[in-house]
């Protein structure tokens, strides 16, 4: 019988904890009180990032390398800039320009993309996000369609400054086939919201 009161107390403690979850604020919230949240303020933002990229080779790439005097670079240093608008809900629209740092075709021009897309982030201390982008890709062989899907996490340093770590898989129509260029980047975002 001595075990029953212990179970009732433990059960009561769990019940109280669950009842308080409805009133919980996101971890890392700014401002305190009922209006606290862990997002940048709604408004325009600018961002820049840099990292590494790898053009995933296929069986046709080995043929292209033996027929070409200058071998394409399949690894590169990537960098990009972005501008956009983020709402309090965590949804953002953005326009990006990214130089993936990988060379294709004859190896004379790096793969560059100009894309537009959406991003959604969740309000936690470290905010996970996902984004989707689409737009033209430019290289020495011309212009083709490019797209990317990405996931990452942001850490707010202040209400107007965030640091991002992201993984994106860029997909580009090159040489008659879809090529994947995975990237890992670190970046900063400056918000201009009120």
What is the spatial order of strands in the main beta sheet? 1-2-3-4-5-6-7-8
Structure summary, number of beta strands: 8
Order of helices and strands: HEHEEEEEEE
> Separation of termini?
60 Å
Draw up the topology in text.
Blueprint (H helix, E strand, L loop, with lengths): L2 H19 L21 E12 L4 H9 L7 E12 L4 E13 L6 E12 L4 E14 L2 E17 L2 E14 L2 E15 L3
Antiparallel strand pairs: 1-2, 1-8, 2-3, 3-4, 4-5, 5-6, 6-7, 7-8
Structure overview:
- This protein is mainly β.
- The chain has a single domain, classed as Porin (Beta Barrel), CATH 2.40.160.20.
- Helices cover 14% and strands 56% of the residues.
- The chain contains two helices and eight strands; from the N terminus they run αβαβββββββ.
- The protein has helices spanning 3-21, 59-67; strands spanning 43-54, 75-86, 91-103, 110-121, 126-139, 142-158, 161-174, 177-191.
- It has an eight-stranded antiparallel beta barrel with strand order 1-2-3-4-5-6-7-8.
- A hairpin with a 4-residue loop joins strand 4 and strand 5 (126-139).
- Mean pLDDT is 76; it is low at 1-36 and 62-71.
